[in-house]
Amino acid sequence: MIKIAILASGSGSNALALIEYFRERKDVEINFVISNKRKSGVITHAAVNDIDHYIIDKEIFYESSLIDIKMKSRKIDLIVLAGFLWKIPDNLLKTFAGRIINIHPSLLPKHGGLGMYGLHVHRSVLDSKDEHSGISIHLVNENYDEGEIIFQKKCDVLITDTPESLADRVLVLEHENLPKQIDKFIKQEIVKQKTV
Which of 104, 111, 122, 138 is catalytic? Predict the structure, then answer.
């Protein structure tokens, strides 16, 4: 059984897409949900789906090993950031090296980095007059949005787009592709472990 922990700060729509995708699977489980916002939608999704969840504050996240300990005690195999806005601390990066995945709503390396989240990203795309936007799924390292990219999918930027309309189309790509790419990553890692 592969156990996944999800970290999210917002509505949790990507977390819900993952929960629904893996719900009937016997080999993969969404085991734990963490949020830095008590009233975030992701906590509601976790509660409705009977998934253990936890609210963190910055002091606990950055100045203690509590989350690392919780992940280890639950035997978490993979961490997925689904709209989580804080940088991952060094202890988690070390414990889960190569096993933390983030989804970003643009075609990295453009429009990434500190402060590039939500509508800020889509405004940046439109201000740059890019012909395409899309999603990037990447491994997480010590810098915002700079880890190895494992998947990208693009969509056209329309002349009539607003940040909100572009965000809506990109979100569709996120929901369609994140669960499938997480599934693919897990299968590749299992094969890799068997051949080592």
Answer: 104
